[in-house]
């Protein structure tokens, strides 16, 4: 897939989606990238700082621990939350949605986190990430599905919008799905 590794923060929210960062050791003997081309935790934090932003929490939606060491986030004072989320199941698992919504609510309701962003990633930063962010926007922030999908699509290049649209048909009425206001 050809897309940026980090999306912009989603206007009107605290979310910033990104693809999974990889530990530098992941690349040893596998490719010719220089160390400054590796997409790792440090680069994500650097991207945020360059934009004048601070990430306060990262939600890892991958279903494995093999990509990087989660303690790397704590070096930067970032809270890390692991939610094992199997691919292609998130739209059928209300327990995952509820856990995500609860974790985000807890973070945003803590005044010490004011202005801090919430980084969210799955493997590619698209399907699970996009779905759960959209569900939060719809369920907690009152956005229409059309507005949520439009917003996340703008943030992530090459987002598989059709897949999100099909998944949302299970949680909203067709009339609100077609509503472009929001």
- What fold name stands as the CATH topology? Protein-Tyrosine Phosphatase, Chain A
Average pLDDT, to the nearest integer? 78
How much beta, percentage-wise?
5-15%
Task: Give the helices and strands as they follow along the chain.
Answer: EHEEHEHHHH
Extract low-pLDDT stretches. 1-6, 157-182
Q: Report the CATH architecture.
A: Alpha-Beta Complex
How many beta-strand elements? Answer: 4
Shape: globular
Tell me the name of the CATH class: Alpha Beta
How many independent structural domains? Answer: 1
Number of helices: 6
Query: Share of helix among residues?
Result: 25-40%
- Helix and strand composition category: alpha/beta
Architecture blueprint of SSEs:
Elements: E1 15-17, H1 41-50, E2 55-60, E3 79-82, H2 94-108, E4 117-121, H3 127-139, H4 145-155, H5 161-168, H6 174-177
Parallel strand pairs: 1-4, 2-3, 2-4
Would you kindly provide a written description of the structure presented here, covering whatever features stand out?
The protein has 182 residues and is α/β, with parallel strands linked by helices. The protein has one domain (15-177): Protein tyrosine phosphatase superfamily (Protein-Tyrosine Phosphatase, Chain A). Helices cover 34% and strands 10% of the residues. The chain has helices spanning 41-50, 94-108, 127-139, 145-155, 161-168, 174-177, and strands at residues 15-17, 55-60, 79-82, 117-121. It has a four-stranded parallel beta sheet with strand order 1-4-2-3. Helix 3 crosses helix 4 (145-155). It is globular, with a radius of gyration of 16 Å. Mean pLDDT is 78; it is low at 1-6 and 157-182.
């Amino acid at each position: 897939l050809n897309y940026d590794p980090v999306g912009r923060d989603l206007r009107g929210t605290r979310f910033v989606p990104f693809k999974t960062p990889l530990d530098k050791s992941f690349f040893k003997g596998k490719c010719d990238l220089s160390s400054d081309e590796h997409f790792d935790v440090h680069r994500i934090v650097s991207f945020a700082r360059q934009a004048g932003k601070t990430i306060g929490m990262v939600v890892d939606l991958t279903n494995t621990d093999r990509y990087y060491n989660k303690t790397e986030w704590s070096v930067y004072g970032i809270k890390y939350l692991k939610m094992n989320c199997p691919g292609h199941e998130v739209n059928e698992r209300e327990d995952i949605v509820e856990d995500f919504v609860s974790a985000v609510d807890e973070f945003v309701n803590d005044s010490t986190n004011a202005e801090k962003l919430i980084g969210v990633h799955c493997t590619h930063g698209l399907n699970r990430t996009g779905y759960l962010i959209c569900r939060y926007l719809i369920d907690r922030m009152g956005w229409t599905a059309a507005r949520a999908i439009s917003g996340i699509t703008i943030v992530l290049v090459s987002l598989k919008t059709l897949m999100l649209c099909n998944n949302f048909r299970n949680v909203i009425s067709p009339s609100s799905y077609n509503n472009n206001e929001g």
